Amino acid sequence: QVQLVESGGGLVQPGGSLRLSCKASGFTFSQAGMAWFRQAPGRERDAVAAISLKNSVTYYANAVKGRFNISRDNAKNTVYLEMNNLKFEDTAVYYCNTHMSGSDYWGQGTQVTVSS
After folding, report:
1. Closest C-alpha to 39, from 79, 9, 71
2. Cβ neighbours of residue 15 under 8 Å, at least 6 residues apart?
3. CA spacing 20 to 30 A to 38: which of 7, 19, 76, 105?
4. Which residues pair with 95 in a beta bridge?
């Protein structure tokens, strides 16, 4: 079974940093594009960042460009999201995602709360 397990969320002050991790299993990680989404209460789940194989192609939402970095370590079956200069509006549950064979797969999410 495809499994995605996020970790690294927590409470952080504005301007602070966190690094989220997503450990993947149950599929050939090195052949799959990966992405991070986030969802705040009452809002849609939106893509934050995505990465192709070997970090060759990346996507970032405008709201996080210049602050967040997505990367992957295929040897560890892990994708990371480095978040810097965090803002109040970054508060959300962050989800790891992959898409294959016509289906989306999601982790259970990790909470990121930015508060002073």
Report:
1. 9
2. 85, 86
3. 76
4. 37
Q: What are phi and psi of 32, to 5 degrees?
A: -120, 135
Q: How confident is the model at residue 10 (pLDDT cuts 50, 70, 90)?
A: very high
Return the beta strands (E) in the chain as ranges: 3-7, 10-12, 18-25, 34-39, 46-51, 58-60, 68-73, 78-83, 92-100, 103-106, 110-114
Sheet holding 3-7, edge to edge: 3-7, 18-25, 78-83, 68-73
Distance of alpha carbon 104 from alpha carbon 16, whole angstroms:
31
| SS3 of residue 88 by DSSP | helix
Q: Is the pLDDT higher at 30 or at 92?
A: 92
Contact 87, 13 (CB under 8 A): no
